[in-house]
Design brief:
This protein is an alpha/beta fold and 173 residues long. It has two domains: 38 residues; 123 residues, FAD/NAD(P)-binding domain. Helices cover 30% and strands 27% of the residues. Strands 5-4-3-9 form a four-stranded parallel beta sheet, with helices on one face. Strands 6-7-8 form a three-stranded antiparallel beta sheet, with no helix packed on it. Strand 3, helix 3 and strand 4 form a beta-alpha-beta unit. The termini are far apart.
Length: 173
């Protein structure tokens, strides 16, 4: 299976890391990935050209919500799959997240909370056809936007005096 990774455009070291992380992640899964660095504003234009009807957005953080909104504006039927039990889990409490979910659903975006995508299945034409979650739910999609956030890579600091917070990030003052 081949996939296309679209990452934020730029020459900053953080952008180069995202490119490398995307390639390494999918190579580890045995998936051939093509990475396209692009400005977010041009992502909408690229999606318009694809003429999609369905998409899955993996991740309910700021980037995932932005992608879901952009896709929906193009008339795409969108499903957001968030592994945590609420959207924007680092920014919103349960009540605020519920309000966001309600607004998204009212706008025609399906929201699946507390589930992770574990498999992708090809369509007859060779592209993506669906993804499935750890509960067995199948989400039909022609496009998958992966916006699963950032996980700090601080494993080498585990045996040092550098203090880490529960998420694994370095504690700063």
């Amino acid at each position: 299976m081949k996939i296309l990774c679209v990452v934020e455009h730029g020459n900053a070291p953080s952008t180069r890391l995202r490119l490398r992380d995307c390639l390494d992640y999918y190579a580890g899964l045995g998936v051939e990935a093509t990475v396209v660095p692009t400005r977010r504003s041009s992502v909408t234009e690229r999606l318009r050209v694809l003429k999609l009807s369905t998409a899955a957005v993996l991740g309910g953080g700021p980037l995932g919500l932005e992608w879901a909104h952009a896709l929906r504006e193009q008339g795409v039927r969108v499903t957001i799959v968030e592994r945590f039990p609420r959207l924007l889990p680092r920014a919103l409490d349960e009540a605020a997240s519920h309000l966001v979910v309600t607004r998204l659903r009212h706008a025609g975006i399906e929201v699946v909370l507390g589930e992770e995508v574990i498999s992708a299945y090809p369509a007859a034409h060779g592209g993506i056809g669906a993804v499935s979650t750890n509960t067995g739910r199948a989400v039909a999609c022609e496009f998958v936007a992966v916006a699963m956030g950032v996980v700090p890579n601080t494993e080498l600091l585990a045996q040092t005096p550098v203090e880490l917070v529960p998420s694994g990030a370095v504690r700063v003052s």
